[in-house]
Amino acid sequence: MDNLLIELKKLIPQLPQEEKNRLSDDVLDKLHSIYPFNKFEYIISHLIAHKIISIQDYYNIRSSYLNRNKYLYIFEITAPRTFGENWAQRHLNEVVPELQRPSTLLDPGYSGEYDFWYHGIKIEVKASRAVKRGSKETLIMKALSYGSPFGFDMNFQQLKPKCCHVFVWIGVWKDRIIYWVLSNADVVNNPHYSKGQHRGNTGEGQLWIKESNIKEFTPYEVDVRNILNKIEQKYTESQLMTSL
Question: What DSSP character marks residue 34?
């Protein structure tokens, strides 16, 4: 969003003075917006009307914006449960179709405590989105690109290491999705893991990934094509540690 606004504002000085007044910061800040009519559409319509940009210019701006924000639509999912469960689980199953939905036929002791099953491996999926820390804007307006200079908070919560063997975490930026695969031991032993997220909820915790610690999770980062192999590797590691 910030890049698009900067790009458009560079063109405003080419307009007649009366039109420039209509596109001043004061006017844009007070502009009443209802999706999809907002200050971006307002500026672009004036630029096209006065032939500052052509339709082809608009197409180029649009294409560039879409490339920079290909995952922005995920920030439109406002309900945390819909994002964390419906989108994240469906997305992971699309990129790793070998994962099975658990049932008592696969695991007689299953009671909804994990998300996927793969040859005896219990897998829990968690997802979070990178948003500008401290911003009071809407979720889509405070969404960040990977490598943004702004501080961000990415909270992986309601973690129950005793209920699964392996975690798959999905981090979403406007322009990138990152996957981390961790064993339950990796989570429990991580210095950033906080136990007791909710009072009375024993065995449950949370972990924050921020710009200050994200590099510490590089060893767990995995290419989408290697998620399944990493799940198997982490399961083997956890079993070896348990047997020691």
Answer: B
